[in-house]
Amino acid sequence: MKQFINQKEDIVTEAIEGTIAASGGALARLDGYPHIRVVVRSDWDKSKVALVSGGGSGHEPAHAGFVGKGMLTAAVCGDVFASPSADAVLAGILAVTGPAGCLLIVKNYTGDRLNFGLAAERARAFGHKVNMVIVDDDVALPDLPQARGLAGTLFVHKIAGAMAENGASLDDCTRAATRVIANSRSIGMSLDTCTVPGSVKEDRIPQGMAELGLGIHGEAGVEQVVSNGARGAVVKVAEKLAATMSDAPHAVLINNLGGASVLEMSILTIELLGSVIGDRIQLIIGPDAMMTALDMHGFSVSVLELTQDDTTLLAQSVACPGWPGCHSIAPSVILPLPDGLSPVRAPASSHEPTRAFLTSCCEVLIAAEADLNALDAKSGDGDTGSTLATAARALVGAMDTLPLADHTQLYRAIGLELSQTMGGSSGVLLAIFFAAAGDASSSGKPMPEALQIGLNRLRQVGGANPGDRTMVDALLPALNALPSGLAQAAKAAREGANYTATITTAKAGRASYINPDQLNGHVDPGAEAVARLFEHLAR
């Protein structure tokens, strides 16, 4: 089982129970499990217009996560990707509707339209005032007569919900909802399909491709396009939106479809703000998971043309866990480094043999990126190759600023560069290594001895010793053999690196947290990098 669920028949009711339990008493549910699953505001007194929405589950936090003061009054939950029954919708309407009436907010899917529509008719027969609006914000297929309802639905929840909270009439809330729907546009993109509980995952998106214009129920997108990173994805999405947008200010809602990381969503956000529609974006909601498609590795972007009081209504505070807030777009603020952190650098100087030597070493590490990452995935977090390659690229880029003709200062300059460009502990340790080597060189020590002193300082601070399954296992024997020539140093480094594959108990680094069975037979990536570097020098 690849999901943290119990029985698939119970996932919706158990999820509702978890949502209510975590609400601090703000949410309640109607009786009637398992056929009637309605989440309501526990403080509701029927004195204002009620807002009811819902649909199939699997879109969490939609819709129960938007029940609360200032947004929905009730959410009606169906099975995963399946509309709730008309009886369930009717139960929700009857539970929350008072003299002010009820507005149903429905996404444009056949099952939702039919069940919510029938429930509305039955509620009217009971004497209740009930209006219904249909959200159809999808622009993936502009000529489709029945566009789907996507995350733009949340604009309707928020603006109509704020108006209802402020005491607006049912007709005013309905008119506002209708206007917001007409001014909303959405489109999504995904790198993978979702996993429906109890079903075999469909594997229809080839490696290196993405689906553009997909729905929120795992259905296929309008087209498959080459996946070209965050920037390429945003370009395609923004082009589709731009063709439907006016030049007026807009709000944007950046939605995680469930499987994208927070890191990815932040990158997509900055790309979107710099895209062809960026200058039209005045307000931003997210990035966050608001209307998901289970675990789909994708995102959607919804835009709303701002008219009338939309800006104020979007910014109005709410009391529901799913709404991340709405913020104005403001220029990034960059503050200067505090005194003492701006590095003092030695003057740059030119020396072509040294430049060629350093460049060739950097190229070795860059070429080894994928191999070292693969090794690190066996014993760490899979980024050793990327960390070293990033530092190597930065060092190549900084070559014109280095004191290449002054090797004493060069050690220190390399250490400073690595401390700023290498992530994690590796950058700090190598900065210590080169700084100590530079100090030793400035006191007259020859290169082999200066490097030994640098290694001793690295071991002292980092706590790594031979046999601990780190780069020290290759670097120490290599430096010990260096007075005998580079060939001997390379041989010693390789033997030391290979030895790490037999060490099943790491005593330093992230490998120390790994099960011994996972370490056996796999060379430490740091030691491998050292061995490859010395083998290159020996050639």
From TrEMBL:
Residues 352-539 form the DhaL domain. InterPro entries: DhaK_dom, DhaL_dom, DhaL_dom_sf, Dihydroxyacetone_Kinase. Residues 7-323 form the DhaK domain. Keywords: ATP-binding, Kinase, Nucleotide-binding, Transferase. It comes from the Bacteria. GO terms for molecular function: kinase activity. PANTHER family: TRIOKINASE/FMN CYCLASE, TRIOKINASE_FMN CYCLASE. This is Dihydroxyacetone kinase subunit DhaK. The lineage of its organism: Bacteria, Pseudomonadati, Pseudomonadota, Alphaproteobacteria, Rhodobacterales.
